[in-house]
Amino acid sequence: MSDNRPQKRKAFFPINQAFREYLQAHGRFLELPLIYEDLLQYEDAFPLINEHGEDTLWQTLLFDQYRGKELYESLKLIYVKLRSEGDETILKNLYIDRVDLCTFGNTKPLRVRIVNQFNDNHDYFYIKKADASRVYGLELEELLSPNDINFLLWEDTLIEEHIIGVPGDQLIKEYLPRADIHEVRLAKEFIKFNERCFVRLLGDMRAYNYAVEVTPDFEETQYRVRAIDFDQQCYEGRRSLYLPQFFKNNLPVVKLCTRLINPETARQYQREERALIKRRLHFSMSRIGHLRDCMCSDKISSNEKTHQLKTELAEMHKDRRFLKCKTMGEITFLNISITLGLDEKLGFYP
Question: What is the CA radius of gyration of the chain?
Answer without folding.
Answer: 21
